[in-house]
UniProtKB/TrEMBL annotation:
Residues 1-427 form the Major facilitator superfamily (MFS) profile domain. It is found in: Endomembrane system. The keyword Membrane applies. Belongs to the major facilitator superfamily. The lineage of its organism: Eukaryota, Sar, Alveolata, Ciliophora, Intramacronucleata. Pfam families: MFS_1 (PF07690). This is Major facilitator superfamily (MFS) profile domain-containing protein.
């Protein structure tokens, strides 16, 4: 007769509390990381720099993450996600502190150094650690929904930053320092949230281990640890996902990073219109993404949705490449509105599809490494591509922004090719990405608990 066991917190409403903490964490991180996008003009006037220097800030942020998420993923799998997250979150505090100091002294080099530290901590926290934690708490359940909600609140952070940072700048007498202090307050909230998450996760692990018998504990201790050689076991579909991720995110995020200035210079739009159009994809994503995540959990078909989302991104790029008479302001606004609306649908669809695919393509004990490698590849693109775009925008005018769109269109085309190959590869390799999420039973007994410990690494 099987022994009935109490329900793991991973199978109760506590997991929704944990998801809420994850969302708060994402908002705080994103407000700090996105400030060069929404304060590009203010940075230019404060430090007497150009738009190419703004793109260099993004490259500096992404540069350490060409390598760091890979090793960060291994660190997470080695020392545990809780300890790793607290270490990298402390780098966020240091980075934002340097940005505050750089703003106060009007030292652009300090701002660059701050962005470097934000990069050292931000991507591992946002992409690797939080993704590994969500996989741990939602494995075999509403994983696409959880990732969709998490990504939604990253975009909520972007919307808050876009709407409030320019206002803070004006309220405090055109003070860039005030904006950096505003960001610093949010990064402290992020650090506090990280502590609460760690406490909750530790109590959950302790509670689960108390329910295990000696045989289960022995199996858990003997679970093979991750090492670099495990990367050789990653299949072709994992690397196809990496290509899709780096190209799709690079095209979208670089467009957004330069969007406000492009709306001003190429499309002759007002400040209110610029802010609205910049935040529109994030509003759409924040509204629609959780529902799409829930829907994908139910029906699967992830490669098909990757193809659809890639074509939406390509369509928006084609619209942006269209020549229009921007002396007629309404005509330009309508075109950009349509393109940004399509971008919002793309982002709402793509994000909850791509990230839950990763745990399906790697072993359970290598999930941190899996997220880390994709993070490294993504940041390689977000380091190199903004430098190229910075060179394209060296002479900032309407024509140079059109050339930027041509370049982003080429990147988007590569993403679409990768998405199509993923579809055909999955057809001939068990259709694991096409299947809906398999939900575990609500009540667990000894044999099922063994299955759970095989799929969940306890720090």
């Amino acid at each position: 007769m099987k022994q009935q066991k109490q329900i793991s917190w991973h199978r109760t409403n506590v997991r929704w509390l944990f998801l809420g903490l994850t969302c708060l964490f994402q908002v705080g991180c994103c407000i700090c990381i996105d400030f060069p996008s929404v304060l590009a003009s203010q940075i230019q006037s404060t430090f007497n720099v150009g738009q190419k220097d703004i793109n260099y800030l993004f490259s500096i942020y992404s540069m350490p993450n060409i390598i760091l998420p890979f090793f960060g993923g291994i660190i997470i799998d080695k020392i545990g996600v809780r300890s790793a997250q607290l270490i990298f979150c402390s780098l966020l505090v240091i980075g934002q502190g340097l940005c505050v100091k750089g703003a106060q002294e009007q030292d652009f080099n300090l701002l660059k150094l701050g962005m470097l530290f934000l990069g050292l901590g931000g991507e591992v926290c946002l992409t690797v650690a939080q993704s590994a934690l969500l996989t741990k708490w939602f494995l075999g359940q509403e994983m696409s929904l959880a990732f969709g909600v998490q990504i939604t609140f990253i975009r909520v952070g972007s919307v808050i930053g876009a709407n409030w940072l320019p206002k803070v700048y004006i309220w405090y007498g055109n003070s860039f320092s005030a904006c950096m202090m505003f960001c610093f307050a949010f990064v402290l909230i992020t650090m506090l949230t990280s502590f609460v998450q760690s406490i909750l996760d530790k109590k959950s692990d302790k509670r689960d281990k108390e329910q295990m018998n000696q045989q289960e504990l022995t199996q858990l201790e003997q679970q093979p640890s991750v090492n670099c050689s495990d990367v050789k076991e990653f299949k072709f579909d994992y690397y196809l996902l990496s290509i899709s991720c780096v190209c799709s995110y690079s095209a979208f995020l670089i467009l957004q990073s330069n969007g406000i200035r492009m709306f001003q210079i190429r499309y002759n739009l007002t400040l209110t219109q610029q802010t609205f159009l910049y935040t529109l994809p994030y509003f759409i994503s924040a509204t629609v993404t959780p529902f799409i995540g829930y829907f994908i959990d139910k029906i699967g078909k992830r490669p098909i949705f990757l193809i659809i989302s890639g074509n939406l991104l390509l369509l928006s790029t084609i619209l942006f490449s269209k020549n229009v008479d921007c002396l007629i302001q309404d005509q330009c606004f309508s075109l950009v509105l349509l393109a940004q609306f399509i971008n919002g649908i793309f982002f709402a669809l793509y994000a909850p599809v791509i990230w839950p695919c990763i745990p399906l393509c790697v072993n359970a004990n290598s999930q941190g490494t899996g997220f880390g490698i994709i993070g490294s590849i993504q940041n390689a693109g977000l380091t190199i591509f903004p430098i190229i775009v910075g060179r394209i925008l060296f002479n900032e005018n309407a024509i140079s922004y059109q050339h930027m769109i041509y370049f982003l269109g080429f990147i988007t085309f590569l993403a679409n090719i990768s998405n199509i190959i993923i579809y055909f590869y999955d057809i001939y390799h068990d259709n694991k990405l096409m299947k809906p999420t398999l939900k575990l039973s609500e009540y667990e007994v000894v044999s099922e608990q063994e299955e759970l410990t095989d799929n969940t690494r306890v720090d």
